[in-house]
Amino acid sequence: MRLLLAVLAAAVPIPHNALLAIDRHMTGRNYLPTRVVGFTYTGWSHKNGVLRVDFRNKSGLSFEWRVLPMTGSCDGGKQQSFQVGGNKVWWAQNVTEQYAWRCVFDQSGKPLRLETASSAPTNKLAPVGLGVVAAHAKRY
Q1: What are the φ and ψ backbone dihedral angles of 56, each rounded to 5 degrees?
Q2: pLDDT in tens, 100-112
Q3: pTM attached to this predicted model
């Protein structure tokens, strides 16, 4: 039984209380990452319609999970694309951060952009690593 509980705890990278609070704020749009190996949850916020969830690892690298309304084409601005876990994921980098994303619809049919972003350079946090987080997100 302990092993099963340990596996379940590892499968949900966000504490239960935080999940409930996010669910209250993001009804029908509560998409969250399921694979964040080596990173731990540090907090969340919801401002101007954008959900942000922060994760950090022991060496100080961090990334931010974002759920935001989609505007324009889903692949707009892409520099690379990946097929990960059966999902098409796009990646791009600007001066301040790299980010990977995919697009989904909320329960009312509105398009959302699920985005993983980090200011870490690509030699510290690989683009496909961000892509894995975006690809394996699900609605809780």
Answers
A1: -145, 150
A2: 999 999 999 999 9
A3: 0.89
